Amino acid sequence: xxxxxxxxxxxxxxxxxxLLVILGWVAALSAAAFFFSVPITERVTATSPEPxxxxxxxxxxxxxxxxxxxxxxxxxxxxxxxxxxxxxxxxLYARERKALVSVSAAGALLFAGGASFAWFLMREPAxxxxxxxxxxxxxxxxxxxxxIEFIGTLLLVFGAAFQLPxxxxxxxxxxxxxxxxxxxxxxxxxxxxxxxxxxxTPPDPLTQIMLTVPLYALFEISLLVARAAFRKGERAExx
Length: 239
Description:
This protein is mainly α. The chain is built from ten helices and two strands, in the order ααβαααβααααα. The protein has helices at about 10-35, 35-45, 60-75, 75-90, 95-130, 145-160, 165-175, 180-185, 185-200, 205-239; strands at about 50-55, 140-145. A two-stranded parallel ribbon has the order 1-2. Helix 3 packs parallel to helix 6 (about 145-160) and helix 9 packs across helix 10 (about 205-239). It is globular. The chain starts with 7 loop residues before the first helix and ends with a helix.
């Protein structure tokens, strides 16, 4: 059974409390990461194929802050997912809450997997691709904050985007959608992924495609897993 529904203001207050918890953890872990920002910044900036410059007196300090904030968000991902579950769970039935707990537990691993995918597999091709357009009189002269912003955005976007399998499995497990329905609307989902990638990534079609391709592959893999889970559930009901 669902828990007793509260008023709009009750939900707003609950949302505020959950948001404060998330912000508190992000702030605390970002502050902790700031003490290690020097080796982290050196590791990140060493991957740049172009020399990096600080174009303002405070830019190097700002780069360390952005590194610490990105590390804090990544480290806080389990807390963020747990707080989202705590906010959503009261409005669900027991079966739905059980399914949400299962998929939320995998969220932090998927986030780390998405960030790792971006760092180890997508970073170098993306940088090489953008660098290849430096032709003629165009020479690379990158600022350190711009480079760190690019790397941080890449990690966070892929980490968030890799939550797609959880969304697919949750829809199927809670009965909101059937695998056949999701398969029927493949083209619509592909368009939706393109739109989402355009919103999440920098305003260029190349990065959009680089995010959309692995996302669509994840969707197809998730669909196969969802079909197996759906058939298993049907067999359990028949038994």
